[in-house]
Amino acid sequence: MAIDTFPVELAWRRHVTPHVLHLAFRRADGTALPFVPGQFLNLHFATEAGGTHRSYSIANPPGPDGLLEIAMSPVPGGLASLALAALQPGDVIEASGPYGRFVLRDEAPCRYVLVGTGTGITPYRAMLPQLQERLAAGFRVQILLGVWRREELLFGDDFRAFADAHEAVEFGACYSREFPAGPEPWEQSGYVQTRFSQLGLDPERDLVYLCGNPAMIDESVEILKAMGFTLKQLRREKYLSARPAG
Ligand SMILES: Cc1cc2nc3c(=O)[nH]c(=O)nc-3n(C[C@H](O)[C@H](O)[C@H](O)COP(=O)(O)OP(=O)(O)OC[C@H]3O[C@@H](n4cnc5c(N)ncnc54)[C@H](O)[C@@H]3O)c2cc1C
What we know:
With 246 residues, this protein is an alpha/beta fold. Helices cover 18% and strands 34% of the residues.
């Protein structure tokens, strides 16, 4: 079945960390694209072997400006990485979506434990207004982000501001490759999953979201299952790499 694509125009671009490119698109046909925070877009690319696509989580909540932001961590020599890095404001490419079920659902008040590595942090940024609404209904939120080093802490200021503004929100960052001298209380070394034992995780109360690196997600699931979580209490979005074009 043919995929229903639509044109998106690059509105602006900037480096959000030394490594990661933050790109904002808008539908070029002037219509809005309804989406639920946590969903992703497919961006489509022409290749000699035919068309192909790559997926990117939407990094902002839906808003009146109609922007669709993504954060792209370039893979050396990657097809989409090269194409997106070359894209300039005003350029138009094809997109489809939104896709995905990695979203907040109608659930009884619980603690959301939102775990992301690298650009797998971005769906949680899109969820911030929804999370804020749920705090008033008794939800609690633990955000745990994993990156290589402090400079790569993607949207860290947004998450820290959210945690500072709400007593029911906690924020932590884990650095797997380089730990800063003079760390802040919310900074830890190691992989995110090594923090699970310190979070007072409770299958009766917590819903765990895991997004990003597939190895992190697989390892986390094993640890969480051993702590008594069932797969229903774990929501996952793996950033699997695409099959080669053709
Ligand atoms: C649901 C979903 C959401 C995603 N959201 C995002 C997002 O928000 N931001 C983002 O940056 N990416 C995201 N990804 C990954 C993204 O879709 C691409 O796979 C990634 O950008 C690489 O594409 P590419 O065309 O540049 O590389 P490709 O041409 O596909 O790959 C080039 C080479 O790099 C290898 N490779 C691919 N990915 C990686 C990697 N992560 N690490 C190391 N080697 C790799 C491949 O095996 C291949 O050898 C998401 C993936 C999924 C499935």
